[in-house]
User: What shape does this take?
Amino acid sequence: MAPIQDPPIHDPIALELFKNAIFSIADEMALTVFRTTYSGVLKDNMDYSTGFADADGKLAAQGLTLPGHLGSVPTAMDAIMRHFKDDMAPGDVFIMNDPFDGGMHLPDIFVMKPLYHEGERLAFACTVCHHIDVGGRVAGSNASDSTEIYAEGLRIAPMKLYEAGKLNKTIVTFLEKNVRLPVQLMGDLRAQLAACHIGEKQFAELVGRYGPEQTRFYLKEVIDYAERLTRAAIARLPDGEWSFEDWIDDDGVDYGKPIRLFVTIRKTGGHMVIDWTGTNPQVKGAINNTLSFTKAASYCGVRSVLPPGIPNNEGVFRAIEVICPPGTVGNGVLPAACAARGLTGFRMVDCMFGALAMMLPDKVKAAGDGGNTGISIGGYDEARKPFVYVDFTCGAWGARPWADGLDGNSHMFANMASHSIEVTEAEQPIQLTAYEFVADRAGAGKYRGGVPFLRDYRFLEGEGMLQVRSDRRDHRPFGLYGGSPGAPSENRLDPDGENRMLPSKLTMTIKKGDVFRHILAGAGGWGDPLERDPAAVLRDVRNELLSPGKALADYGVVIDLATWTIDANATARRREEMRRVRGWREIPKVQRDDPETALRRAAE
Assistant: This one.
């Protein structure tokens, strides 16, 4: 006869300690991936996430990693529970990446391990990592011009990588035979397995301290606690409905055909609906989102206006309902290509900011650089040994209602780091010959947008394939409340020679000595540029982020370059003249049907 267990105790101090413990386990799992992984996209970009779920697969804690994966682990766990809820045992480990059965895109491979105590499942350790290559037509497996999922690489349905502790060698063989760099892929998978092992070991210690009943109770309570905090925070926001529209330039297949993003936020009490109805139908190119990534973008936008301290878990998601019709670019259906879906996800965060800025004008920033930009360079050396370089780059935040946008800081949806130049040059046939801020490209405003940077990649092998996923060429990052849009992004081949302008999305052959330059888009400004502190303008000029001519044209600030001082009287006159000219150009709302008459009357 089993011993009678005491009922769980609700001790708020013990709950706080337990919450911190499981989040620490998720963080330790993330550090394990960082320390043991092989590929640069993980050890340098840090494009991965870790999490901890309860026995039913509900996310209880997320490691300090990518907000872009906020919506991915719950969706992936739902798929695992749907397929294997009654077919799990100690020693099982699950693997999957299928975008149409719980995944996001093929390079993101999930590894999950159910955790047991005395034969009873109590939790799951969860990891997801962007693998440098999973096969397909282009090295790196993330080309934006693929037109169906079948061209993008190896598609892994939810299945058992280990069963009762025994490795499924058939799955391993399929993986190794269908990717360009099997050693790196298997090394990165072992990093995920190591993270799950660390999570299992530390969770066992937690169960030993609290007991299985109390552990099960606290896992549920941590999720419920996050829901209560989220609903209380949302309840303090204004009720109402706000909509915003933004545009992606094109999908890399139908060039010049813009793609609409449209979001409506409805907020009532402690509940918020994020509705993407009106967004463009899914496209031919590979920028189609899965619903899980659209959810992640929606959650990220909402979390940016909520107070800190709310745990990142399933409880947050209960208060935020996300709607996106199937067959749209935000919720693609078979055979939608989605390898480059990161572009759309990042742009959806910007679209969220546009709607939230109407709801909370004093809390929300303007559009960032539109990142992240994805750059892949792959091929074979003279000995036919494959190489693949994958880099994700972003670094310009939109201006905030209280401060300039951040310069050289990863997009909040990514939370990624930059590749080490020295490591890249040691491991890849590439030289990075320039990595620098670019002047005169940040959107002007009372607070200016973040300053973008450029990178130059010199190719050293005989021949290779360059693949680029970027945007914000035709539809620049928007400013808010009088702020100017940022400058467009650029792709150039051999900038110091031919200096050929390339499209925003491309797949092309490059030769030895070719230099590819990518310039991020500048971020949008916030507020009237003529209200900017002249001292801040002078500081940007001295730091070579702004030219003297641009300081005069955008801000009306006259700088004496001989003494590096502001000519206050000339600045006042210039700004007054700019305001007067701007007033002439404004067309009264009631007369907009007759612009010529309106302009003549304004001039008179």
Remarks:
- The longest strand covers residues 120-130.
- The radius of gyration is 26 Å.
- Confidence is low (pLDDT under 50) at residues 587-604.
- Residues 534-603 form one domain.
